[in-house]
Amino acid sequence: MRTKAPRLEPAVFHTFNAAVMIALAVVTLYPFLNTLAVSFNAGNDTIRGGIYLWPRVWTEQNYRAIFAGGTIFHAFWVSVARTVLSTVLSLFLTSMLAYTVSRREYVLRKPITIVIVLTMYFNAGLIPFYFLIKDLHLLNHFLVYVVPGLISAFNMIVIRTYMQTLPEGLIESAKVDGAGDFRTFFSIILPLCQPVLATVALFVAVGQWNSWFDTFLFASSKQSLSTLQYELMKLLSSSMNSNSSAAVANGADLGAARNLVTPMSIRASVTIAASLPILVVYPFLQKYFVHGLQLGSVKE
């Protein structure tokens, strides 16, 4: 009895698939690894080019120039505080609003949803928004980082759509047992919404961490409220415009390092310093990211 020869199609497919995935991984990781190598390479040597995945002249002077003066450390904790507080409050309030408009028995859910969605497409502009912040007495106040982003229309829609996929019987059973809306929300809805909440938390945290323009507009005159991204932006802008070291731009004396720190090396160091905290947090939320986004964006 003749045996069938093994088919080549699966082996060819898996080989091709692995090759494509490896190529995509290399293309994705190379810019970050190259930036990391440039950040640890001497600035005057970086100008020559030819830095790929490993520093040619190793130095930590780029990072010393960034952290010279001590303002970066205070700005780091301000960024951490605004990111944590804004993420927690935004998740809590947005999820409560999403639960409210997801209930079919709530007669105003459609008008409220329409009004919220309209804010995604229409706004008064930057100048009216500035005067609104001024009238709320939030200028040069820490709450200017928190209050404007408490509710996000997009995040509310994602969470609401996810909640609508939950079995209705769970909520009905809770009501039969005498649970009110608050007990149902905290004891049943929130635990079941962990994937989508983790996804939205990542959105909010990344947005808050990377934000610097609100500091420039509303808190630039108060140094104690300066954030990490704003300080790094000033440092990078000063370095690029004056073609000098970041530490010299901040008033520090690094005479020997003047030839070691260049705008190109400062740019790479600033990029790594700004992205590292998010890279540390992301692996803990990644398992929820795709799952939560898929379930929160499509309703069966």
From TrEMBL:
Q: Which residues form a coiled coil?
A: none
Q: Which residues cross the membrane?
A: 12-33, 76-100, 112-133, 139-163, 184-206, 264-285
Q: How does it sit in the membrane?
A: Multi-pass membrane protein
- Where in this chain does the record put each ABC transmembrane type-1 domain? 76-285
User: Would the keyword Repressor be found if you checked this record's keyword annotation?
Assistant: no
InterPro entries from the UniProt entry: MetI-like (IPR000515), MetI-like_sf (IPR035906)
* Compartment list: Cell membrane
**CDD domains (UniProt xref):** TM_PBP2 (cd06261)
Which of UniProt's keywords are assigned here? Cell membrane, Membrane, Transmembrane, Transmembrane helix, Transport
The UniProt entry's sequence similarity note says: Belongs to the binding-protein-dependent transport system permease family.
How is this protein named in the record?
Carbohydrate ABC transporter permease
Q: What is the lineage of its organism?
A: Bacteria, Bacillati, Bacillota, Bacilli, Bacillales
